[in-house]
Each structure stands twice: as C-alpha cells, then as structure tokens.
Write a structure and sequence with these properties.
There is one protein chain. The strands form seven sheets. A five-stranded antiparallel beta sheet has the order 1-23-22-21-20. Helices cover 9% and strands 35% of the residues. A hairpin with a 6-residue loop joins β16 and β17. By secondary structure, the protein is mainly beta. It contains six helices and 30 strands. The relative contact order is 0.17.
Length: 461
C-alpha cells in the first residue's frame, strides 16, 4: 500500500534505522561480494583517480587537492591532455550539494514527485492538489509549464518526462495515465480546456475486470513505451506508437509499488512490491509468465527501485527502513517462504518497531544494506548519484524525518544529511551534471541545495 490517511504525527523526531548513538548503519551482506564484486570495483574506478595519475602527481592514493589536480591537467602530467571520466567524477564528486537550502516554490498541498530531465534543463514537481509544475532550470527556475491535472484519485503518484522532453505522463490511483504535450508555448495547461490531456487506459486488458491504481510509471529510453506498476499486483506495458496496452503481467502477490527499465535496451524490467520481493523480468522470454529471477532480502515492502543503468545492478528502498544494493546475477528462480514468518506491520499507522531492526533475512541476496533514513506513510524514493559528476559513488534518498540522506556506495558511510523541510520528503533529484539537488516535501516546499565552489577540500578520499 502506497498511501495512508493515518494520524501518525506530522512532526517526526525518533531516528529510524540508526545505531544507538544516532549514526547510520551499514551492512555488507557478503564479505566476498564486498571484496570482489565488480559493482564495488567499477564504482571505485568510475569515481577515482587512475594509477597513472596518482603516480604522476606523486600523491598517496586518493589524497590530493583539487588545485593540484587542475594544475597537473594543465601541464598534461597524465599524457592525455584531459581528465578521464573517473578523474572528472573524482573532482566533481567532492562538491556535494549541501549548501542552502534555497526556496524555489511553495504550494498549499503535499509534494510527491521531484525529477530533473535527462539533460538537466527542466525540473518537474508533482503535488497532491492536482498541480504539476515544470521549471526552466536554465532561465532562473521560471515556471515553464503549470499543469492542472485531470481525474485525480488521491494524489499524483508519479510523473515521467519523455526522453525528447516533448511529453509528460502522470498517474494517480486510477487505471488511466494522462499524457500532455509540454513542448508547446502555452504556460498554463488545463486538462481539456487549454490542452488535451489524453487518457491512456491501462485497464483495457481482457483479464482486467475491476479498477485499480498506478503507483509508478516510466518512459522507455526510446520514448515508445510506458511501463507501470499497479495495486492490482501487476506490471503493464503500453505502446504509445500503437496506442494500446501490449502487456499485463500478474507479477507479485501484493501492490507493485515501483518499476524501472534496467537499461536502454528495454529488455529487462525491475519491479518491487509489498510482498517484500524484487523481481527481474526478461521481455524476450515471457511465454511462461514467470520472472527471470527473484531477489530476497527486504523484510517489508519495497517502495522504490533505481537502476544503475548497466543491466545488472540496482538499489531498492524498503519499508524495513533500509536501502539494498543488488546484483541480478545472484537472483534465484523462486522466493523462499521466510516472508511469511516476518511479523506484520503497517507503515501508515506506526513507527517501525525497534525489535524488528534486529531481524535479518536468512537468505538475503543483496550486496549491501544502508540504514539511517526513515520510510513511513509514503513510498519514499532512493537513487544513485549522477554518473557524469560522481561516477555513481553515492546513494541518496528522501526520508520521513524531513531530511535527505546521502550514503557512500562502497563504504556505506552517511556522508551528508540535508535538513530544511518540516515534513516528509518523498522524492528528491540530483542534477545530472551540476552539484545541485532539489527536494520536494509534504510541507509543500521545493528546496534547492548547491555546493559552494570556494570551499576547497584539499585532502578528501
């Protein structure tokens, strides 16, 4: 279940998923994986200095000032005349977006969705009060499009921009996903008044005989298809060119809270559910209707999945107050029945019981577990930091305690905690190229965090 109407306190004080001293906790679930799994190795490679650069600069591994690195590039010490992608990420990754926050917007309803476009030129925020705003990042964050949504049930549950940034789709707890042309010049977009908000019917499948809601919707990399997860335990794929539903998978035994394409090919789909499972679906071999594999480890429902984009690894946020890192090469064909023995608990009505924090799944297939943030009352989202500027060396997430948490992928260290909101942060987004992070909260505010370029970090790992 994604949304609750409980009277759980709006002011949240008790830290969840932390050690007794209030620090975050990190668990490597397989020491061999920690040492040898290539996800950790590639993260180090993509966000650190090459051995030749270390030697040419005469510095201890990973200990060198940005000024010295820039000077070395100018005199071409590496012999390449430029930074490698890893060296660039090493430099830019030092400048975390932790300064601020600056207030970008304030609405009178809860914010549920935050999202930068792929090129960082646009930013989208979706609110419970039927509003979706698109901001022009390159023009002083002016409102590019103010969309007044149509036929909403409860809230805007998700939005997604097409790769060419011409169209936006939005979903709610209904089987209809609406698509809007956001490339035209008009600033205001009122559904079927100033703009056509075409309704895409996801309930047209022959097996669907009842209404349902959609929690998650995403464009494919070519913009041709949409994938969606719903509270009828299913995954749907809609072909926009053919204007029809092409696939319905009875994927889980409870709400499908999140879906994501694994990479640009669109062949693999990841899904996460309130049945506590993450599943991998290969669209090239769905004749049996079975998942290509199942990944166990979460003790309570999965709220969000973010793919690393390599077709092999992803992270998931869970109601067990944990983010998990996965390698699909460890997946099984079937899930074990351990979930049936986990005590029931509803995240909409109470805080996570302290005694549950000590429970570990005996067949946890994840590579690592990151704790410190809080997942209550809403489907809080987590992401890898951008590949260009950080080499995906960080994981960041919203939290019910009104903060944004940033973890180091390899060490598990909580490297930053951003405070500025008063209520839960369901979603946040890191600019794909610049050290800028934007968070949206149930307090109705959209806040921007940046990095102060004058704060030089001279000796940072």
């Amino acid at each position: 279940m994604g949304y609750g109407m409980s009277r759980l306190e709006e002011e949240y004080c008790e830290p969840e998923g932390q050690n007794s001293d209030g620090s975050s906790s990190f668990q490597v679930n397989d020491e061999f994986a920690k040492l040898h799994n290539d996800i950790f190795h590639m993260t180090r490679m993509r966000s650190g200095l090459t051995e030749s650069m270390d030697k040419s600069m005469g510095a201890k591994r990973g200990k060198i000032s940005t000024t010295k690195l820039l000077s070395g590039r100018e005199v071409d010490r590496s012999g390449k005349g430029m930074f490698s992608s890893g060296e660039r990420a090493f430099v830019l990754g030092r400048y975390l977006p932790k300064d601020g926050p600056e207030l970008l917007d304030r609405m009178d309803s809860r914010a549920y969705v935050s999202q930068f476009s792929a090129d960082g030129s646009l930013f989208v925020a979706g609110f419970q009060g039927s509003h979706i705003r698109i901001y022009d990042v390159d023009r002083g964050w002016n409102i590019h499009k103010d969309i007044h949504a149509r036929s909403l049930r409860w809230t805007i549950s998700d939005v997604s921009l097409s790769p060419d940034q011409r169209f936006l789709v939005y979903s709610s707890l209904a089987p209809i996903v609406h698509i809007v042309n956001v490339g035209n010049a008009a600033r205001e977009s009122y559904a079927n008044v100033t703009d056509i908000h075409d309704g895409l019917d996801f309930s047209q499948h022959v097996d669907v005989q009842y209404s349902f809601g959609i929690f998650s919707v995403k464009f494919s990399s070519d913009g041709r298809e949409l994938v969606a997860g719903s509270n009828d335990d299913s995954i749907y794929v809609y072909d926009l060119h053919e204007n029809k539903l092409t696939l319905r998978l009875p994927a889980h035994t409870s709400d499908v809270n999140t879906v994501a394409f694994a990479d640009e090919t669109g062949h693999l789909i990841y899904s996460g559910s309130d049945d506590n499972l993450c599943k991998v679906w290969d669209r090239r071999c769905l004749s049996t209707g079975e998942a290509a594999g199942v990944l166990t480890g979460h003790l309570h429902g999965v709220t969000h999945i973010d793919s690393r984009g390599d077709g092999r690894s992803f992270i998931s946020n869970g109601k067990d107050q944990a983010i998990k890192l996965w390698d699909i090469r460890k997946m099984m064909s079937n899930a074990d029945s351990y979930a049936d023995r986990v005590p029931s608990w509803d995240y909409r009505y109470s805080r996570y019981p302290q005694q549950y924090k000590q429970i570990k799944h005996p067949h946890d297939q994840s590579l690592a577990t990151y704790r410190g943030h809080s997942v209550l009352r809403t489907l809080i989202r987590c992401y890898f930091s951008p590949a260009y500027s950080t080499g995906q060396k960080y994981i960041y997430t919203g939290s019910y305690d009104a903060s944004v948490y940033v973890y180091d992928v390899v060490s598990g260290t909580q490297v930053e905690k951003l405070k500025g909101h008063q209520l839960a942060i369901r979603d946040c987004s890191w600019h794909p190229f610049d050290p800028t992070l934007v968070s949206s909260s149930w307090d109705g505010r959209v806040l921007k965090w940046t990095s102060n370029p004058e704060q030089e970090t001279s000796d940072v790992d």
